[in-house]
Amino acid sequence: VQLQESGPGLVKPSQTLSLTCTVSGGSITTNSLSWNWIRQPPGKGLEWIGSIGSSGSPIYSPSLKSRTSISRDTSKNQVTLQLTSLTPEDTAVYYCATWGIGFGSWGQGTQVSVSS
Fold first, then answer.
1. Using alpha carbons only, what angle is made at residue 104 by residues 36 and 77, rounded to the nearest 5 degrees?
2. Position 55 confidence tier, pLDDT thresholds 50, 70, 90
3. Residue 19: what pLDDT?
4. DSSP labels for 28-69?
5. Are strands 58-60 and 47-52 parallel, antiparallel or unpaired?
6. Do residues 86 and 15 touch, judged by C-beta distance below 8 A?
7. In whole angstroms, what is the distance from residue 21 CA to residue 96 CA?
8. Is the distance from CB of 69 to CB of 1 less than 8 angstroms?
9. Mean of the pLDDT values across residues 70-99?
10. pLDDT of res. 102
């Protein structure tokens, strides 16, 4: 399974970020796999943002829940992340990843910078 993130590299404060994860070599409706968004701010560790499973119901990190929306397009085999009310603290490399029992795969990540 291959994952590829895409989206804008630069966004302005207060705007909404929209990132797409395009999946190939597997289906996002596969049972027992979750499709996750994770980010890594510069000089910091990985932070899990949220995920969506085969049922299509998303779950979110409590710290980002009020600003996050994760959805999917099964016809395109894509998972989308939207993050609202951006601040410079949202600057990070954003990753799409999938995992399940005995399996995992990550995208290469996409740099997002929030700056005016």
1. 55
2. confident
3. 98
4. TT-TT-EEEEEEE-TTS--EEEEEE-TT--EEE-TTTGGGEE
5. antiparallel
6. yes
7. 6
8. no
9. 97
10. 85
33-36: long-range contacts at Cβ-Cβ below 8 A with a sequence spacing of 24 or more?
Answer: 33/98, 33/99, 33/100, 33/103, 34/98, 34/99, 34/100, 35/72, 35/79, 35/96, 35/97, 35/98, 36/96, 36/97, 36/98, 36/99
Q: Greatest CA span in the chain, whole angstroms?
A: 43
Residue 34, both tokens: 């979750």
User: Counting Cβ atoms within 10 Å, is residue 43 exposed (0-12), middle (13-18) or buried (19+)?
Assistant: exposed
Q: Which amino acid is at 83?
A: L
Measure the CA–CA gap between 96 and 40, rounded to whole angstroms: 12
Return the amino acid letter for 27: S
For residues 54-58, average pLDDT: 90
Residue 48 binned pLDDT confidence (cut-offs 50, 70, 90): very high
Task: Provide the token pair at 31.
Answer: 């049972």
The dihedral through the CA atoms of 78, 64, 46, 57 has a sign that is negative
